[in-house]
UniProtKB/TrEMBL annotation:
Catalytic activity: N-acetyl-alpha-D-glucosamine 1-phosphate + UTP + H(+) = UDP-N-acetyl-alpha-D-glucosamine + diphosphate
Family to which this protein belongs: Belongs to the UDPGP type 1 family.
Name used for this protein in its record: UDP-N-acetylglucosamine diphosphorylase
Any one biological process term the GO annotation gives: UDP-N-acetylglucosamine biosynthetic process
The organism of origin for this protein: Paraglomus brasilianum
Amino acid sequence: MPTQAEVDVLKAKYAVAQQEQVFTFYDSLSPEEQAVLYDQLFKLDVDRVNRIYKKAVSSLESSTINLSISPLPDDCFDSVLDATESKQKEWESIGLKSISENKVAVILMAGGQGTRLGSSAPKGCYDIGLPSHKSLFQLQAERILRLQKIAKDTTGTQGEVVISWYVMTSGPTRAATEAFFQSHGYFGLKEENVIVFEQGTLPALTDKGKIFLETKSKLAVAPDGNGGIYAALRNENVLTDLASRGILYVHAYCVDNCLVRVADPVFIGYSISKNADCSAKVVRKAYPEEPVGVIALRNGKFNVVEYSEFDPTLAALAKANGQLEYGAANIANHFYTVAFLKSVERFEGELEYHIARKKIKHVDLTTGELQSPIKPNGMKMELFVFDVFPFTERMAVLEVDRKDDFSPLKNAPGTGVDDPDTSRRDIISQHVRFVEKAGGKVVAGDGETQDKLTFEISPLVSYSGEGLEGLKGKTIRTPAVIETVGDIEKVVIS
């Protein structure tokens, strides 16, 4: 329990910050409730909250003033769609070497819940309906296991190859995420190499920047956006752990991309070869009006320009080769050097938070009654993971094939766009292509059609199509699942 003197000091601090309303009900609370509220207020940097609010409002007001958009420089952009096979092999070799030397880690942004999908569990626990019924977490864990083996076998490394996996959760999803991993034995990974940490929060604010109370004894707070990763890496001692493990490079991505190539050695090697301190995977924008953010230069600095900021004429501008000039669609898939991640603290105060208008449940300060608004009544402030791009010294952008690298899970089943059905379809289609590239074919069995197959290849068998050489000249009839190398012979019918 805080002393009265400690409470008075904290009240004075909040009064100077003009946020004294958070103490409105303090004297009427039970001692236990007072202790909870005091602890929350004591840990909150209220001056930082005020600075973030003022900068966010100022940035919003000036965001369209003197906005200059220009294309990415040619020397920082490459595409696997245009690169020769030998160049891609060169990048892959560099990546596999670094992985084999245990210099590469992965950071998974997994703070979201599956609310839109009809689930209250963390989104990574979601089963998209593959024949194996593996969750997103399991698919990604098994890709790590397979890649560790590929790196070890390819380079002839004698020791253990480890790709450490750092899983960023939010407050509401941390316990459930940890329990899910524990109950599934970390999907074959070693427990010490799966590190769960938590992103930060910021208070929800009124339009005038006043902190809402969710209850009489609790502030209304929300996660600080996926860009909160940078402060969380520091505050949760992840940067220290990375250094202790000798890790130099990090691959970061979002949990809801079912096709993600975790720690992709081609992307890692490409970024290292470009001497990049930060780089991004992108996919080719499908058409000028596609509602996606694009990586370009904003006022001369690398950034993501939202589709709503583009003039239609500029959005449709084409290069000499016919591709869109502004066609590098952002998919939140990034490479960093650990040195760059450490450097973020130096310019953190310059990062601009974004305002999201929201319906904020809160306690009325006059009546003490809970209010559940039916329209937006306040704001949550978020930092996006790409907000550090303007501060990079050596940025690189690699375009990849959308059908092999990007299929987001955003919407409820049956939506028809970015939903479990499209995620499942895209993985199965990719696995069919793996077989075809190996020289085999997959045909529909009874009751199935070629565009709706029951088929799956475990990531433990193939990371990106390798290891399927035994299928050359062979035919597989669905339904079929290749869960182990031994299953390859079992599913072949001719």
